[in-house]
Amino acid sequence: MIEWLNHFGSQWLAYMTIAGIQNTIFLGFVFAALYFLRNSTAQIQYKIGAIGLGKLILPTIIPIPFFEWTLPQPLILENIKLIESATNSSTPPVPTVTSLDWTGLLFLIWLLLTGIILLIAVRSWLRLKRQLRDPQYLQSVCLGQRMIRIYQCGKINMPMTIGIFPKKIYVPPAWQQWSPECREMILAHELAHIQRYDGLIQILQMLIQALYWFHPLVWLLNRQLNEYREMACDDMSVANKQRASIIYSRYLVEIAENMVQSSLGCSSASALIRQKNNLLKRVIYQMKEVNMVPRSGNTIRFILVGLLLLVVPLSLNYGKAVPGKKGDENTKVVEISIKSDRTITVEGKPTSLSNLKQQLQEIVPVDPHNVVISIQADNAVTMETITEVQQTLRELNLLKINYQQKAPLVLPQSGMAEKLNKIPRKNVATILVTESGQILLDEEAVTALQIVERLKQRLSQNQSLVVSVRTAKNTTYNDYLAVLDQIRAAGVTRISVGDD
Fold this sequence. Notes:
The protein contains 14 helices and 15 strands. It is α/β, with parallel strands linked by helices. The chain has a five-stranded mixed beta sheet with strand order 8-7-6-9-10, with helices on one face. Helix 1 runs antiparallel to helix 9, helix 1 (2-36) crosses helix 13 (448-461) and helix 3 (102-131) runs antiparallel to helix 5.
């Protein structure tokens, strides 16, 4: 469990860091736009806030197509050379006691608080459902092709709908005391909620609030969205008529007075005060809207489009760049695909390992320094096949290689193995990935998650640590990539792949 928390904690922190920065910047633009459009209608302000909510929902998964040599490279990365797989009598794994690191602790706290917030939301929803039990049917109204039923419930003090796609409207006992005009406007308000699919937006708000409970701007955005939503529905209920706005404001005051007399629908005094304050803001908005001088339509459209365009650059994942096909005009990119059955295609044309060199000589220009080889390999391809392809590329002096599954591996000049042998053994950690996928760290069997913990501990004691990764001939490319991921997750930057 601790290993799992440590492993995913580092990945979670890396994601949340970049997502938090991007979302903070975007929400800053959102609140600036809301301030600039403060004299616009609630519907316009709600759209601005909804764009901010949409950005929070969108994960930072859009990769940036950088060219191969713009990505960070390991300091040491030797060509893959294979050794025979280890014997089955290898040392069994030794149980180790791992401790929870600070990234794992933060991840655990985030998980717990996220779960608590979701549980509180579910508990509140269940409590409200209990209060709405055994309602009295009053009438049905038509909303487009849907029939919406009106129910009176004695345990609430204000009209409401509940659910993602509600088909019922619940009204308090005071409903019978209100005038027909008041009931008509209040009903129009609740129907506006259903028509606008506000229940779905509220669910998304709840999820975003749970995921970003640590972000104050998210709390502020959700609070303002709730206010703008009610005000926008108020506008729809009065149809933007000046006289109707004044009458509707009086009805809102009437509802507030009814809440003072009865707090049946409130679980606490703070909830009652919050509901009354929200009603007061709605009254102020209705009175203010009469004298509003909104911005021009072109200005509003310009702001909306500008915010939508900002979503793209602020949703890019700078940590997962992939190689691009376009670079310097003098650079030629050659694509090679390797299949698990040792079938190879070069620029879409099938070939074999024995003919690979000849086919590349026909494609590659005289100067190979401006050629980048882009390799796409199946996960089941063996490291023997990968090495044979690399050996062919080395013979042709094609030393710039992109592996599309991962950050590019650039084949260096020869002599790296000799340099590695001169490094003191205490500065080198050796990892062997066997044919069966077993992992040996300094001849001790370990799991993939244990690699991260062990290497982090070694790095804390020795910042000059070099990790040497070796594979067997029939080790799959997928097993090799999984181990390489763990090594990089541990923070290792000096990697030698397959030294003798």
